[in-house]
Amino acid sequence: MDIAGGASTVRQALGAGAIDELTLDIAPVLLGGGERLFDGVGTFGFEPVEVLHSPLTTHVRHRKRDGG
Q1: So what's the pLDDT on residue 12?
Q2: Structural domain boundaries of the chain?
Q3: Cα–Cα dist 24/48, whole Å
Q4: Residue 10's pLDDT is what?
Q5: 37 Cβ contact partners less than 8 Å away, ≥ 6 residues apart
Q6: Distance of CA 31 to the CA centre of its chain
Q7: What is the C-alpha to C-alpha distance for residues 19 and 10, in angstroms, rounded to an integer?
Q8: What is the mean pLDDT of residues 6-18?
Q9: pLDDT value at residue 15
Q10: In this predicted structure, what is the pLDDT of residue 40?
């Protein structure tokens, strides 16, 4: 199952233990703001397994650590 959503949706799914793999698409900006994705979810418990670079975005796939 794929879950797509904003920070609140992802935090809820992480808190419920419903995620075993997570892909973050990172598009940095020089100035700006946003909602912190991992506030209030405790220990992250994931490790990066793949990184793909493109001109404007970096895609990082994480997998849940064994026992995580």
Answers
A1: 86
A2: 7-64
A3: 10
A4: 83
A5: 7, 10, 11, 24
A6: 21
A7: 9
A8: 85
A9: 83
A10: 66
Of residues 61 and 40, the one with the higher pLDDT is: 61
3-state secondary structure 1-46: CCCCCCHHHHHHHHHCCCCCEEEEEECCCCCCCCCCCCCCCCCCCE
CA separation for the pair 12, 34 (Å, rounded): 17
DSSP state of 65: P
Q: What is the pLDDT of residue 9?
A: 87
For residues 29 and 22, what is the distance between their CA atoms, to the nearest angstrom?
22
Q: Can you read off the two tokens belonging to residue 23?
A: 């892909």
Closest CA to 41 of 9, 21, 11, 7: 11
Task: Give residue 17's identity as a one-letter amino acid code.
Answer: G
Short-list 20, 21, 25, CA closest to 60: 25
